[in-house]
Write a structure and sequence with these properties.
Elements (H helix, E strand, L loop, with lengths): L1 E2 L10 E6 L3 E11 L3 E9 L4 E13 L2 E12 L4 H27 L3
Antiparallel strand pairs: 1-2, 2-3, 3-4, 4-5, 5-6
C-alpha cells in the first residue's frame, strides 16, 4: 500500500493498494474520523472486475474495550447474478479470513 496524497490524511486522501497477484486498486477515503471511523472506495482498478467496491470501518466503545464494525460493498462487473450467488460463500470466506487477520493485528500489544 502506498499513500498517494500528502498529509494530513482525511476525506479525499488517496492510496494505491496492490492486492497480490489479483489486481492493483486506487482508493479514495470518503470518511475519516480519527479513532472512530474510516471509509474508502475504489476509484479505479487494474482489472475491470468491479462496478463498485467500498469498505467502512467503525470503532465504538464497548464493555471496557471497543467494537469494530466492518462493512464491505462489492458490485462485480460483468458477472451474472446467478454466478454471484454461487460465488458469495467464497467471498464470505475470504472476507472472514481478512477479518481474522485484522483481529490478530489489533490484538498485538504495541
Amino acid at each position: 500500500m502506498v499513500w498517494t496524497s500528502p498529509d494530513p490524511k482525511g476525506v479525499g486522501t488517496t492510496r494505491t493498494v496492490d492486492i497480490g497477484r489479483a489486481f492493483v486498486a486506487n482508493e479514495e477515503f470518503i470518511c475519516w474520523e480519527t479513532n472512530q471511523r474510516m471509509a474508502f472506495r475504489f476509484t479505479d482498478c487494474s482489472r475491470p472486475v468491479f462496478r463498485a467496491f467500498a469498505e467502512d470501518y467503525r470503532i465504538e466503545p464497548a464493555d471496557g474495550g471497543c467494537r469494530l464494525t466492518w462493512s464491505v460493498l462489492v458490485r462485480p462487473r460483468g458477472i451474472p447474478e446467478s454466478v454471484i450467488k454461487v460465488m458469495s460463500p467464497i467471498l464470505v470466506i475470504s472476507l472472514r479470513r481478512n477479518l481474522n487477520r485484522l483481529r490478530a493485528y489489533a490484538a498485538v500489544d504495541t
